Amino acid sequence: MSGVLLADRYMSPMTDGDLDEVAAVERLAYEFPWSRGNFEDSLRNGYFGICMRHVTGTLIGYCVLMPVVDEMHLLNLCVAPPAQHAGAGLALLREAVRITHAEKLDGLLLEVRPSNHRAIRLYERFGFASIGRRKNYYPARHRGREDAIVMRFTFVKEGAHGAA
């Protein structure tokens, strides 16, 4: 798949050549970032990695998706701090849903920190519903742990009433 142009940015599959930049953005964006090795393992295991770049080539954000049986699991979605609040997160989420649908999977599952209010609002506005909680899922400050809210986006089945 070649890059998909979106006004002043484009998306393309994540490759090994992207991983130094991806890991650098991850460290800037998160207090408890994934390691470069986490991204390498994801690509090696056949997960979907998507990079969003500005037309200048600057990495804006990325996401990693893992197919699991009949649904997709959004493992990581990140927007570089300088590019936040400009619609990149929504564009990456739309791409994740597009890929999930193209793979003929039933829906998209994710975990999010309860303290990540902006992400929760984005997911809820998009149509994700909270379906549970994973206790002590994320590392937190002072060697603590933070729960995860589990959210799911489900496609409307053919013949069902309503819209996706």
From TrEMBL:
InterPro entries membership: AcTrfase_RimI/Ard1, Acyl_CoA_acyltransferase, GNAT_dom, MshD_Acetyltransferase, RimI
Keyword Acyltransferase among record annotations: yes
Ribonucleoprotein among keywords: yes
Reactions that this protein is recorded to catalyse: N-terminal L-alanyl-[ribosomal protein bS18] + acetyl-CoA = N-terminal N(alpha)-acetyl-L-alanyl-[ribosomal protein bS18] + CoA + H(+)
Keywords, sorted A to Z: Acyltransferase, Cytoplasm, Ribonucleoprotein, Ribosomal protein, Transferase
Gene3D superfamilies: 3.40.630.30
Superkingdom field: Bacteria
GO molecular function list: protein-N-terminal-alanine acetyltransferase activity
Domain N-acetyltransferase: 9-156
Catalytic residues as annotated in Swiss-Prot or TrEMBL: E111, Y123
UniProt-annotated binding residues for acetyl-CoA: N116
Subcellular location(s) of the protein: Cytoplasm
EC number: 2.3.1.266
Pfam families hit by this protein: Acetyltransf_1
Any one of the GO CC terms: cytoplasm
Family: Belongs to the acetyltransferase family. RimI subfamily.
NCBIfam families assigned to the protein according to its UniProt record, in alphabetical order: rimI
PANTHER family attached to this UniProt entry: [RIBOSOMAL PROTEIN BS18]-ALANINE N-ACETYLTRANSFERASE, L-AMINO ACID N-ACETYLTRANSFERASE
Primary role: Acetylates the N-terminal alanine of ribosomal protein bS18.
Protein's name according to its UniProt entry: [Ribosomal protein bS18]-alanine N-acetyltransferase
